[in-house]
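Two folds, back to back.
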Amino acid sequence: MALKCGIVGLPNVGKSTLFNALTSAKALAANYPFATKDPNVGMITVPDTRLDQLTEFVKPKQTIPTTIEILDIAGLIKGASKGEGLGNQFLANIREVDAIIHVVRCFENENVVHVEGGVDPVRDKDIIDTELILKDLETIEKRMDRLRKQAKTGKKEDVAAAEHGETILQHLNEGNPARSLDLEGDADELLKELLLLTSKPILYVCNVDEESVNNGNSHTATFQEAVKNEPAEVIYISAAIEAEIANMETKEEREEYLEMMGLNEPGVNKLISASYALLKLITYFTAGEKEVRAWTIRKGWKAPKAAGVIHTDFEKGFIRAEVIRYADFLTYKSESAIKEAGKMGVEGKEYVVGDGDVMHFRFNV
């Protein structure tokens, strides 16, 4: 499955700088609003030491990691929900993504202007939340016209649907994002059907100065307190540090620089780990002489659905899955040794794929 995330935030908070660093792309990074007009699109290769280890054991002709598609979406200002600035385009781009990476500025720099006149990440977050909620209110109010008319028929299901809609409408009117609404059954189904912007999972990225990348600062402390009750992840990244890492030629240079900065890993690794956790994603592998490859699926998927990520025929004609635990690959170091040890499992349609499983699917179409 192709994962798509959108980087959003006010102008001049470091979105495009971070995008460039994460994807090694060359998007325009400029010190004025709307430097990004159309969404730049880049790919992040998902680092995975398990894939590297499997490659060492199997020695395939090629190794294919999984990727995340990143959209750097134009900066948003007050009034975007009414078309101000690049509002309509911005909001349309958000509809396309699986998750939102919301960058908030948590660093001081008098040479980088702020569209609101000063650094205040909580205010910046509220501006974007407000614009997205206002757009969602337009969506739900249009739907409510139909739901209320249908409810007049007196049918139990129509009345219930209208009541569910009113619950969602009230929640948004109170200034709350749809993702913080806990619904079940038909009410939850209605919420999903509406495709509201604020129902998308969100990862907050606090863009900090180099000194604050490990422990944060006063801005991040205030921000963390403001979002503590949200169903969201928060991480600290210094776009400036990521830009330095992206420009380095060798792995040794990058490792030395990370050690100097007191970091265990680059920000892209933190972002990917947080995104996977937020979206409840895991990775399984296929391994053979032609290729060793990583595949991204949702946690809890059963074997046939996981096979369908490779090709729909694999799901339609699924017979069984031959499964090797990654830990067994580490122990026995080859498929033949694993088979001899009786460690290869043969699983049917009800098997729930685990993170790190090495899979071989048998199918017939």
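---
second:
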Amino acid sequence: MKPRIEVVAIDCLMVRLFDAIAETNMPWMLAATGRLREGFGAALVDLVPSYTTLMVHYDLTALCPAQARALIDTALTDLQPQAQGSGQCHVLPVWYDLSVGPELTLLSRRSGLSVDEVIRCHSAHEYQVFALGFAPGFAFMGLVDEVLATPRLNTPRKRVAAGSVGIAERQTAAYPVVSPGGWNLIGRTPAKLFDRERDGYSLMQPGDTVRFEPVDHAEFIKLGGDDTPLEAQA
């Protein structure tokens, strides 16, 4: 691993640790995050981890660009990956049903699997949370089994219900709030993914893992889920 530093803005640098997305990246990303937070201290404005990069936003009144680069070089010297399993594991109940997951049939057709097999395949894996973005509490997770990898919709929906679980390429995610979206929807979770009263707001953080647990309609409703069909919410 040979980190590269790229200029994003006058007070922002991008640290590129990898060139390809992989679950094995995360222990290194977490280790680098810790080192950079410690190294920059009060001069750090924000640190945004992603699949392969870390964006470092620093206080330009406290550091010049050359000093910021030097801090990054020092922080990443002799970097070692963080121990696996240091993040929290979340189990999200999901009601997989065509009324709330209309692309179940599309994934079935593309993969050659039955709808039940699509559900079993999606829920069998423990996914890594790589990054947060797009909307508050929206966690990008992966990697989905290649057989389920499906491009985003050609035309995004204007309104996707909160809790909707979807797939885009080899990523999976659950929409924390009502929003537009172009992911292939396969179900819905009753879990509250974004909460202003929660420390950190988001249920999930980079480095956490997520397992989707299929539940039937009765359990979904018992857990507080909204079963309004997607078409009725448009």
